[in-house]
Amino acid sequence: MSTSPEPVTPAAEDSSKVVNPVYEASRKILLAAVGAVSLTQDALDEFVAKLIERGEIAEKDGKRLVKEISEKHKNNIRSAENEAHQHIYDVLRKMNIPTKKDIEELKEKVAELTRKIDDLKKG
């Protein structure tokens, strides 16, 4: 009787595909790490290369892991940037500081009113 863990199959994928348990554990650990710590591409590549070198995951799984983690990291960055922009916008609104769009709209209204005044003077 062996004490090694049984292969894990992701619920979202075809149940006929068996996933290496080390790959799955590494994937989960790295996905969690991306949320807390910004891994550099070099560090990620090095970590996965060591797993491949030790034979703990296949090379194709390593490439897939690097791609998945990189995409997740990029999405997290985009999401953080969007949140930061929204917070800045909210703070400016609360402070009643006009945005560039507000100023442009006011310039257009002033130009329109100036034209109307000029028309009234001529008329």
Quick overview:
72% of the residues lie in helices and 0% in strands. It has 123 residues and is mostly helical.
State the major sheet.
none
| Helicity, as a percent range | over 70%
End-to-end separation: 102 Å
Report the principal-axis shape: rod-shaped
The number of strands is: 0
Per DSSP, what share of the residues sits in E-state strands of 2 or more residues? under 5%
User: What is the H-and-E element order?
Assistant: HHHH
Class inferred from helices and paired strands: mainly alpha
Radius of gyration based on Cα positions: 28 Å
Query: Which residues form runs of ≥5 with pLDDT under 50?
Result: 1-16
Mean pLDDT over the residues = 76
**How is the quaternary structure best described?**
single chain
Individual helix count: 4
Please tell me about this protein's structure.
This protein is mainly alpha-helical and 123 residues long. The chain has a domain at 21-97. Helix content is 72%, strand content 0%. The protein has 4 helices and no strands. The chain has helices at residues 21-36, 41-53, 59-94, 100-122. Helix 1 runs parallel beside helix 3 (59-94) and helix 2 packs antiparallel against helix 3. It is rod-shaped. It starts with 20 loop residues before the first helix and ends with a helix. Mean pLDDT is 76; it is low at 1-16.
